[in-house]
Design a protein that fits this description.
The structure holds two protein chains of two kinds. Chain A is elongated, with a radius of gyration of 23 Å. In chain A, helix 2 (about 35-65) crosses helix 3. In chain A, strand 3 and strand 4 form a beta hairpin. Chain A is α+β, with helices and mostly antiparallel strands. Chain A has one domain (about 35-190): Beta-Lactamase, CATH 3.30.450. Chain A has five helices and five strands; from the N terminus they run αβααβαββαβ. Chain B is an alpha+beta fold. In chain B, a hairpin with a 2-residue loop joins strand 3 (about 140-145) and strand 4. Chain B folds into two domains: about 1-35; about 35-195, 2-Layer Sandwich (Beta-Lactamase), CATH 3.30.450. Classes of the chains: A alpha+beta, B alpha+beta. At the A-B interface, helix 1, strand 1, helix 2 and helix 3 of A face helix 1, strand 1, helix 2, helix 3 and strand 5 of B. Strand 1 of chain A pairs antiparallel with strand 1 of chain B, so a sheet runs across the interface.
Chain lengths: ~190, ~200
Amino acid sequence: MTHGKLVWGAIALVLVGVSSIMPRAAETSGPSASIPLDTVADYIHAVIQADREIYTTHVVERMQNKGIVVASENWQEKNTLPLPAQFLMDSAHLVARKTSIRYRLLSLWPINQKNRPATEFERTGLAAVITQPDRPYTGFYESGRKWFFQALYADRAVSQACVGCHNAHPDSPKRDFKQNDVMGGILITIPASQ
Amino acid sequence: MISNSVARNVAIVTVVVLACWSLSACEKKPSAPAGIPPETVADYVHAVIEADRTFYTVQVVERLQKKGVLVASENWRVAHTLPLPAQFLMESSELAAKTGTRVRYRLIGLWPINPQNGPTTEFERKGLEDIRMHPERPYTGTLSSGKDQLFQAVYADRAVTQACVGCHNTHPGSPKRDFKLHDVMGGIVITIPLGQQSG
């Protein structure tokens, strides 16, 4: 009797297991059908990173070194350049208006309190990329019955300007950054449910 | 008796194993949405490129030119000037390629000031023609390069500011001199690898 029930139970579980795998097999069929989410995040990160680096080196640092114009936090009221971090944040707002991806800067020692980690994932991720800056910390979360993929990339002090400002700013909670240190992270969020 | 209890044990173990397997299959479901169609990926990449260049053009180049702080010019490397918005995009594209990422992006046009930025393939030529007629959506396709499959998308690139028009209409190297604001001047082509062809 028990034996018979167990066999039926086993069959039922096989069916459940198979049915939960089936749609996945269909989704990934065909090599050209889709790009893996971590690769998508890598591509987005590569563009964000390249644009900000060009802005930092060819615009901000070059202009400051030549003594033509400086970058400052209150650039909108002054005749100055936006800071590299502001360049990234403001562009992210433009992207958010046009697509469903989101990205932002965050840190354990932010000058602006809004950029502190807000979730357990963000807190754990920041700790992870400080120890392993060569690869992003990734994960999924669910919101409103939709899945989102997140990737947090280490964000380093690429120029002396980053270090100088963070070490001198009155609101900065950490003042001993060195060039190339991981100062925080770039968090990219991509909708994962189609 | 013995065979019966053995059978029961086997059945119990089977149930437990299958239960774990089923649950882990269900649990993996969140990480299961394996990927995103290349069209959507190109849209994301394009949005970032576009946003960064727009911010640079409007909040840096135009703003500081109007205030008389500085100007942008083609020979920015040797002058005390800013890179032109088109040069900003090209510099970023070269830098991204150097970092080892496999996504590629560049500007192309049917009337480029720099002849290097003309269409290099039949796909790019067709794409540039197509987006002049339908600038609201990209021209897309899948191409083979050796064993590799590549997805390409050409997005219309418009004259977003008077600075684009002014420069292209007066530059001695420009093959077209009657651009107007918001005209489609060329395209941004984005290339995304799709992996190797099976078979």
